Amino acid sequence: MSKHSIVRWIKIIGVYLLVAAVAALGWLWCALPEEVYLEPEQTLTLPRFGWVEPLRGHGSRNVASTRAAGSYQTTLALGGWLPVKTIRATVMQRPTVTVCGTPFGVKMFSEGALVVGFSEVHTAAGTVNPAKQAGLRLGDRVIRMGNTVTETNEQVHAALEAAAGAAVEVVYVRKGEQRQTTLLPVWDTQNAQWRAGMWVRDSSAGVGTLTFVDAQAGVFAGLGHPISDSDTGERVALRSGEIVACQIVGCTGGTAGSPGELKGKFISDHALGRICINGENGVYGTVSTAIAGQQTEIAFAQEVLPGAAEILTTTSGETPRSYRVYIEKVNDADPHRNMVLRVTDPALLAQTGGIVQGMSGSPILQNGRLVGAVTHVLVNDPTRGYGIFAQTMLEQAHSVPGTDAAA
After folding, report:
1. 360 flagged as catalytic
2. Which of 11, 95, 232, 297 has its CA 20 to 30 A from that of 167?
3. pLDDT band per the 50, 70, 90 thresholds, residue 59
């Protein structure tokens, strides 16, 4: 091979190495967290990123030496020398919460009447569907018809009766955007009433798992994902809601392609708390009574590691049990799916086949601290599922309106 060819290949290899290095740094920048939390005098380390540490040298701040609570910027660097990303480090006392793992019942009323289905209306002139003709779709929330605010099914019926066949203006919400259309009710000859040809729902109920209670702030956190309508899959827009005591009375085991389910029964009408947030990362609200559990420190997100862990969940009755799991992967980039975990406990596998519906919110503990909560099952493998950081849930819980933490 000629000298010219050798030089050419060296240049090509150099370009490829440079591109690979840039790509690797880009991946690292995305994978690193935007913010970390530390206790006073706690060293800033990122166990999942062994070669990354605060930038050394004059002008950089290693929060490791910071004793006072507060928020600081620090630059992370490869080996402490090659800057990669500037993040915020917040120094605070480590939070402690009451970890639950108990089942709870949810009663929610939606903001507006949710369209969950359509049906043809039989009239003297044939079958028609006024709602479809007006452009309404599954998942739309009807908030007003004419002069009537439609928060309940009964109010929708009353608005149609009041229109008595006259065109009525409909205000609705689709994917967060308020819209309006005109609907012409028709007389249903079979049921002798004015109808629009749509089925609506104003409330939802279900069973989940309570993750924790922060008694000092007076708030609770559960599920780790939003409550969605069973027909449309849309997140229920919360008007009001409450949580009540619940008992697990049965379980359908999960299999590949068919997620299982815990079956619960509400055992009291007395509200344990009020739902204030039905958010992308869980259900949150205020508590009105003491809820049992174990006082546990919360792990900061950067402290969560792949490895052995346990979950607290209830598969029968009202009392949670501890079951072994293994955290296979930890991810800072996805705000809702921070962990992939696998059930390894033979007892839980025998009872449920793994993770089933109703276990969402089950606390995940590692090294004696609360690291997160179970959120979803992998449909094709019920032994595995996703989890969300406890730190994320605590931040959301502290944003509940009207609490000291949200002030």
Report:
1. yes
2. 232
3. very low
